Amino acid sequence: MTQGQIRKALSGFYYVYADGQTYQTRARGNFRNRNITPLVGDHVIFESTNTTDGYLLEVLPRENQLVRPAVANVDQGVVVMSSISPNYSANLLDRFLVTLEYERIHPIIYLTKIDLLDEVGYAEMKQVKRDYEAIGYPVILPERDSNRESLREIERYFPEQLTVFMGQTGAGKSTLLNHISPELALKTGEISKSLGRGRHTTRHVELIPLADGLVGDTPGFSAIDFLEMSAEELTGQMPEIARAATGCKFRECKHRQEPQCEVKAQVESGEILASRYKHYLQFLEEIDNRKPMYGKNKK
Question: What superkingdom does the record give (predicted)?
């Protein structure tokens, strides 16, 4: 028996890296009976007599996991957001950030397609950078005529970390990784003009050794649902709202219509972005209206 890490899952096979080699394995039949689904990023116990015929025996406890993309034990998530084509979406960005915060994954924001912007559009992206850095998030905004420095900046986060790239479909995740490491030659797709979004070019999750760390290139998604988060937990996933909430008169304040709400006061004063508060209320409503889920373990 050997301990390793799943670095790719494809067509029912799990590719486990251990001791400098990759082993092709299958999951034992009792995994399904035990309701266990191995994920890329999982640390596992497996047995194998050769590199093409092995079996997973046990999935070790996870630090965290993401549903979309399906990956476990993530240290940090690079949220790749297009500035244009597809258009920048603050709502989608906040959905990704809330999801990462909930899983205790360190978020990094990377803005793409800057070279396609005019002066007004670039100024708007610079304001996005200022706004989110004020909250406490790292934001990487390439120069309009060169992205060399921004590539070096993102690489500094990679060593000894499992990093997942995520974001809207067509935002340029695979293109960005190709710029960082051209030998990857990851597939990229054009934007569908009829739909205004990119075609899915990444069909599975795979962990790629890069800059002394592991990087996941994952399918893009245009929507994220809060499947397990409770209304009470939501406040804690938006750092500036969580900080302000300590000053609310009522401990159970939902920051809607309650009197002496410090969150609403800071929205009015401009200390909290109006867009972030608007998204908080929207997410809260979605959670309140979510259909009950049975058989799910709460955090």
Answer: Bacteria
Q: Is 113 annotated as a binding residue?
A: yes
Q: Which of 185, 217, 249 is the last residue of a domain?
A: 217
247 labelled binding-site residue: no
Contact 7, 71 (CB under 8 A): no
Dig out the tokens for 69 from the structure: 């993309």
Ligand-binding site membership of 170 (annotated)? yes
pLDDT at 184 (0 to 100): 66
* Residue 34 contacts residue 51 (beta carbons within 8 Å): no
Count of positions (residues) in the chain: 299
Using alpha carbons, list the distances in angstroms from residue 154 to 96, 104, 179, 182, 206: 18, 20, 11, 15, 19
Does the annotation list 167 as a binding residue?
yes
> How many domains, the chain?
3
Q: Is 278 annotated as a binding residue?
A: no
296 annotated to bind ligand = no
Residue 253 annotated as binding site:
yes
115 among annotated binding-site residues: yes
pLDDT digits (tens, 9 = 90+) for 136-193: 999 999 988 778 889 899 999 999 999 988 887 777 777 888 888 776 655 444 433 4
Q: Are 42 and 62 in contact (CB under 8 A)?
A: yes
pLDDT computed for residue 15 by the predictor: 95
Q: Provide the β-strand partners of residue 46.
A: 2, 56
114 annotated as ligand-binding: yes
Task: Tell whether 159 is covered by a domain.
Answer: yes
Average pLDDT of the residues in 26-39: 88
Buried b (16+ CB within 10 A) or exposed e, 250-266: eeebbbeeeeebbbbeb
Examine the fold and report which residue of 16, 46, 61 is the final residue of a domain before the chain moves on.
Answer: 61
Report the alpha-carbon angle 119-124-130, nearest 5. Answer: 125
pLDDT digits (tens, 9 = 90+) for 195-211: 343 443 445 778 988 88
- Is residue 295 part of an annotated ligand binding site? no
Angle at 245 between CA 135 and CA 102, to 5 degrees: 60
Q: Which residues pair with 112 in a beta bridge?
A: 82
The whole domain housing 143 covers: 66-217
